Amino acid sequence: MNIQELLLNTQKASRSLITLEDEAINRILLDTADALIENTDAILEANQKDLDRMDPANPKYDRLKLTAGRLAGIAGDMQNVASLPSPLGTVISETVRPNEMTIQKVSVPFGVIGIIYEARPNVTCDVFSLCLKSGNACVLKGGSDADESNRALVHVIHQVLEKHGLNKEICTLLPPDREATTALLNAVGIVDLIIPRGSSSLIEFVRNNARIPVIETGAGICHTYFDATGDVNKGAPIINNAKTRRVSVCNSLDCLIIHKDRLTDLPALCSPLKDSKVLIYADAPAYQALQGNYPEELLEPANPESFGTEFLDYKMSIRTVDSLEDALRHIADHSSRHSECIVSESEAAIRLFLQKVDAACVYANVSTAFTDGAQFGMGAEIGISTQKLHARGPMALPELTTYKYLITGKGQIRK
Question: In what order do the strands lie in the sheet with 339-343?
Fold first, then answer.
């Protein structure tokens, strides 16, 4: 079967979801979560085949790796999605016109959603659960790095769908080759929406080559600004958590900005990073403050490329600024509009930061690691949108719906 036929079959299968009751959807999701746990050994065996082909030093390795604990977390997210209210059929607005014609704006599925992603097998399950709950069929285009893992996960999903008498093609995994990518990006009239998940180069490629609508889930170049009034006891754990919790994810910290009056506190702020062997690229004032107070082999002078870089690794830059305004300018010049944070005890500084920073998620005294659909109470996420049309920030069920107008009357005609 060629790619075009696979896509057409998914479109046909999507029509069966229109009348599927939410209770039936929830049962499928809960059964799939159970099946993932029951098939842990087979899934981890497939995942190990992918891991064996990748250098452990590759930043993608951590994203690719599945464990029993991570698989349990994936199943838990699926259960959370099942517990959420359906986003479908919501009356967004209702108007009765002077001629007694009633107009309702109602949430509905997109239809078929295509996801292009790299070495992230968890995306396979997150996308399936969110798409099914929102009444959408999904087309998955994973990378070759995770193909064994993705196929094992989709096999489990298909078994559950068939058990419930549903067409398994409401969840289609395409081959991991360029031909499949080209076909998906050009599936006009078949696929309603494309969401890329991955590196900035992948997202740029999809944006430049897709002939159907795209929601960008951009790279995360994230900053934390330690203000003149910042509390070291808050700042040190926030910085450490944002940088080291999982370095390969888009909400991890890339650049610490520090007010010049707090350079004497920089060694204390960076001290927890030593345990994770974080390499720091420091500008001249920060380098001087850390010299002799941070491992020499983990400290290097910053260069222009140190800023505006998504490291996805145990690496971080430090920029010293004279004021909050300078910090805001640096963020505006180098941010990817993903997640930005201020550590401050000044209400005025916090208010200005929250107001002026242009990003999907803006934090005050909280780690950027919380930019995550599950952490936002959404059950799971399909991506973090850094654009401003339709969706912004963690995208979950409401963002996977569009709307249509339902107009009812009593025989009205237009003069």
Answer: 299-301, 279-282, 315-321, 253-259, 222-226, 339-343, 361-364
